[in-house]
Amino acid sequence: MEITQLIAQWHSGETLAVEPNIHQLPKKLAGLCRLATLDEALNDADVLVMLVDHNPFKARSAESIQQQYIVDTKGVWR
Length: 78
What we know:
The chain is globular, with a radius of gyration of 12 Å. By secondary structure, the protein is of the alpha/beta class. The protein has one domain. The chain has helices at residues 2-10, 38-44, 55-58; strands spanning 16-17, 34-35, 47-50, 69-72.
């Protein structure tokens, strides 16, 4: 979550955090970003940054990802 915190502090727009294993953001992220579903992020985000390769993320094919800018640290979508 530290990288998410840094991105949220740096980015002037809304930062969406997708973490399928939690139902509430940790306190250190509260007010910095919004917990979103994968579908919400894929519909709303201009840039995707994949930091973890949870199964729901791996279940999406690269072809289904429409964002022009993707930072995929796990090699799942690119």
